[in-house]
Amino acid sequence: MLSALDREHTVAPAGYSRWLIPPAALSVHLCIGQVYATSVYKNSLVQHFDTGQTAIGVIFSIAIVMLGLSAALGGTWVEANGPRKAMFVSAAFWASGFLVGALGIATTQLWLLYLGYGVLGGIGLGIGYISPVSTLIKWFPDRPGLATGLAIMGFGGGALIAGPLSRQLLSFYDSGYDPNVATSVASGEALTALFVTLGVGYFVIMMFGVVNIRVPADGWRPVDWDPASVQAKPLVTTAQVSAANAIRTRSFWLLWIVLFCNVTAGIGILEQASPMIQDFFREGGTSSVAVTAAAGFVGVLSLFNMAGRFVWSSTSDLIGRKPIYMLYLGGGIVLYTLLAVFGGSAIPLFVLLAGLILSFYGGGFATIPAYLRDLFGTYQVGAIHGRLLTAWSAAGVAGPLIINGFLDAQGKPGTLTADAYRPALFTMVGLLAVGFVANLLVRPVPADVHEKEEVAAV
Predict the structure, then answer these.
(1) What distance in Å separates the CA atoms of residue 281 and residue 364, rounded to the nearest whole number?
(2) Buried-most residue among 125, 224, 300, 306 (CB within 10 A)?
(3) Three-state secondary structure along 124-186?
(4) What does the pLDDT look like over 402-423, one tens digit per residue?
(5) Is the pTM of this model over 0.90?
(6) 282 by DSSP, 3-state: which?
(7) Which residue, among 424, 87, 455, has the nearest Cα to 275 in the 3D structure?
């Protein structure tokens, strides 16, 4: 039965529609995108374990760090074994992370939650995130930005489903929990049941992707697509580069800096979104933005994040990867400056500026696999992508540290105003400027790292 997971058993038959591949990838990314919805039950976990916000927040940090490490270390394995086996392994780790976490909640052993959701779940995140990437690019050589945007859009949108779903499940398992009240907390029994439900449910949904994923047959190409057209585009190679050689090139590390800067700046908004909009419109110790409105703002940002992954990555197929990152980073510089200077003047303006920043954040994630394909070919693009995602792990630590470090120096939560955020926002402007310069310096990789044709064809 397990042999059905092998690459040779996933080759698509003649006439197989390539448009069945994005939904298969999307089923995985929608599930693992739940990691962005952990704040829904954060306060309940704090009360259940009788600990602080930091101790519970570490769970998310562990998961993101493990995402980057597992993607980097497991990327070559994913390429060698194919997307079906990789997606199955991702589903197994992701589901077991919830189940081990549920055991930790039931027994009040916080370390089991770290091990389960943090370590095991983080491995599932990393393998699941990269598993469909190279397959999508091989099915859509004519529109790689569109293809990866369709799938990675699901990661940004996963929280839109997981957030309301988790709140409703908690209210179902605990009649004393009110999903409409921000301060309401659920019991340990409800949290345990939630984790078990999510673990089992996500495993079943991810199996849809496992069953339907296929790799194209050797020599397959889209109808009416001419591979020679690739040569007409700047920075797009027809050669192939291995993951081992890719990390020896200057362009790989320049893209690492680009992704790190773009993600760090985006996390600066995402991680602090709800209290940030309340603080920007605080006068006399009282904010004009209610808690419920702030929660709605987080949902709006998720929509911008998700839409940016599809819209901007699709646009990159038309204008090129380097120009689109000039927009992400250069536009981000302008938007962050406007947010710092004028963001507190009107709530609609604040929401619009923050939303556009988050759309560039999401677009950066979705476009980077296509950028890598342009520079290094399709040979081991999934493994190269995995190694590059260590920039995400680093940004997941750096972004919150920068924001929270500045805010801690300005005062206590609930008393801050727009002025407290300006040093952090201008720091993000500086980071984006570094990323902008790094993107300008990206060049085609030298021919001496190209694979021989007979090796790349394997």
Answers:
(1) 29
(2) 125
(3) HHHHHHHCCHHHHHHHCCCCHHHHHHHHHHHHHHHHHHHHHHHHHHHHHHCCCCCCCCCCCCC
(4) 887 887 787 776 677 788 888 9
(5) no
(6) strand
(7) 424
